[in-house]
Amino acid sequence: SKGGYDHFMLKEIYEQPRAIKETLLRRLDDNGRIVLDDINLTKEDLDKISKIYIVACGTAYHAGLVGRYAIERFAKIPVEPDVASEFRYREPFIDENTLLIAVSQSGETADTLAAIREAKSKGARILSITNVVGSSVARESDDVFYTWAGPEIAVASTKAYTTQLVALYMVALHMANIKKSISEDYYFEIIEKMKALPDKVEEIFKKSDEIKKIAEIIKDKNSVFYIGRGLDYQTSMEGALKLKEISYIHTEAFAAGELKHGTIALIEKETPVIAVASQDYLYEKMVSNIQEVKARGAYAIAIVKEGLDESLNHADETIYIPEVDNILAPVLTVVPTQLLAYYTSVIKGNDVDKPRNLAKSVTVE
Ligand code: M6R
C-alpha cells in the first residue's frame, strides 16, 4: 500500500532515511566495524585483484559511477564502470584477477545477468549488490550484498539508488579494511559520517515547497540540463534520468567542464540549467560554470552544500543541502533531484509510478 502517500515514488523517497539506516547499521558489529556475511573476500583474494568492473543499467549504473570513486579512494584498486548492454558485447579484458561488481535492484535485469555470465566464463569473481534476496543476480554471484531498501514499486528508482550508494561505500571500506589501504582513523571517520546521513536526508525533505516552485517553472520547458563536476556530475546524470523518465521533458547531464566544448550552444533564454555543487574543491569552478550559462540567458538552479561560500553563488534559485563529506555527498545531492522529478511529473498529470513505455524490471534485451 502507499501508506497515505499519493504515489509509491513519494513513499519510497521518504523511506530513504530508514532504508539507509537499515543497510548500514545492521552490518556494524559491537566495535563499529563493517561485517559482510555474504562476502568472503580474503586479503589474499584482494591482493590478486588487479581490476574491478562495475556493471549495471540505468540508475544502478549511476550508483556504480559513484562506487568507482569510493573503491579507488578507499581500496586503491582501479575501477571501470560500464553499462551492462555495452560491456557484454565489447569483449572487455577479463581474467582470473578481475572482480566484476554487478549492481541491480531487481536482480533480474537481462543485460546485467548476461554481463555476469560473460565475466564468469572468463574466470572473474562476481560480487553483486541487489535488493532482492534469491534473485538471479544473487544466485549467480560468488559474493552478495543485499541492500535493505524493502520492495521498490515505483518504476523510477529512488531508495534502491541511495542504498546502492551506501552498499558501495561499505564494500569499498570493507576491502580497504582487509587490505589496510586506509588508516583505522579514516575508516571509522567515514563510518561515523555515514551514520549521520539519514538525518541529513530528512532535512532535505523540508525543502519540498521550494522544489515544487521550481517544478512549476520547468514543467513547460522543452529541455532541462544538469551540470556538475566530479561526484556532482554523477548526480547530474541520475537527476537527468529521473526527470526525463517521469516528466517526459528532454533532459541531459553534462560534465560542467565540457560546456565550452560544444554543449553551451544549446543554452537559450530561460533554458533551465540545474547545477549541482557539493564538492568543496570544485566549488569555484562550478560557480564560474553557473556564470557562463547565466551569461547566455539560462535560468540557473543550484543545488549547493551548506557552508560553501554563498556570496559567490549567483544562481536564480538555490536549494541547500546539509554539510557532508565530499565522498558521501551523492547520497544527499540526489534527493532534491528525485523530488523535483516527482513534483514535475505530478504537476504535468503523468502516471508517476508507471511512466509510459517503461517496465520496472527489464528482463529482455
Ligand atoms: O533492477 P535494476 O536495478 O537492474 O534496474 C536497472 C534499471 O532498469 C533501472 O535502474 C532504471 O533505470 C530505473 N527505471 C531508473 O529509475
UniProtKB/TrEMBL annotation:
EC id: 2.6.1.16
Claim: Cytoplasm is one of the keywords in the record: yes
Catalysed reactions listed for this entry: D-fructose 6-phosphate + L-glutamine = D-glucosamine 6-phosphate + L-glutamate
Residues of the active site: 360
Subcellular location: Cytoplasm
Function: Catalyzes the first step in hexosamine metabolism, converting fructose-6P into glucosamine-6P using glutamine as a nitrogen source.
Protein name (Swiss-Prot/TrEMBL): Glutamine--fructose-6-phosphate aminotransferase [isomerizing]
Gene: glmS
Part of the whole protein covered: 244 to 608 of 608
